[in-house]
Design brief:
With about 100 residues, the chain is mainly alpha-helical. The chain has three helices and no strands.
Length: about 100
Amino acid sequence: MFFDFGAGEIFGLALLAIILVGPDRLPNLAVDAAKLVKKIKALSQSATAELRQNLGPGFEDLQPSDLHPKKFIQKHISNALEEDEPTKFKAKIDPDLL
């Protein structure tokens, strides 16, 4: 979970919501909040899918957390280094020096 809420905090927030909103309107507010969360989740998934499609090949495994600039650069630099590793350690000796 993203937030570190305990049972006491959740109970306190529920009690506060009952007092502020009222017990008769609280179920409707909870339904509206759930719909909003569902809509935001669908929007973020469609945006991620659109990014994958527009970025082209090599980005099929793109995750939203990968879009942080530092992680994005680290991932692609490490991929480039892995591709170059076999050629990186080949020793090239000039025969004239022997």
